[in-house]
Amino acid sequence: xxxxxxxxxxxxxxxxxxxxxxxxxxxxxxxxxxxxxxxxxxxxxxxxxxxxxxxxxxxxxxxxxxxxxxxxxxxxxxxxxxxxxxxxxxxxxxxxxxxxxxxxxxxxxxxxxxxxxxxxxxxxxxxxxxx
Length: 131
Description:
It is a single chain. The protein is α/β, with parallel strands linked by helices. It has a single domain (12-129), classed as Response regulator (Rossmann fold, 3-Layer(aba) Sandwich), CATH 3.40.50.2300. The protein has five helices and five strands; from the N terminus they run E-H-E-H-E-H-E-H-E-H. It has helices spanning 21-32, 46-56, 74-84, 98-107, 119-129; strands at residues 12-17, 38-43, 60-63, 88-93, 111-114. It has a five-stranded parallel sheet with strand order 2-1-3-4-5, with helices on both faces. The relative contact order is 0.18. Residues 1-7 have low confidence and may be disordered.
């Protein structure tokens, strides 16, 4: 009888994939400070990223395309995420090779953000990506 008809939306799942724990912590802080409620997952390598994507079904993945020690390339991870999980992917990298960035954009990535990034600009973009 007391149902007001209001339902709270589930928080958006966001997956941060970066081998650098400092970069992951910085991105986590950006996403946890958004007005859009988020559940943030982290992965340091491609295998963990794909496993988390399969179970968490993130709405957005921030993907460092250079992941030392990973079995899959950043481009193939991007292709899998965009095709198999139908999620939005944003490339984040410190050394953007034009060829690799173009391949990721062709696979369906939204854009490429160069490290180091401005946290205020990242927050503004994140709000747009999650709408």
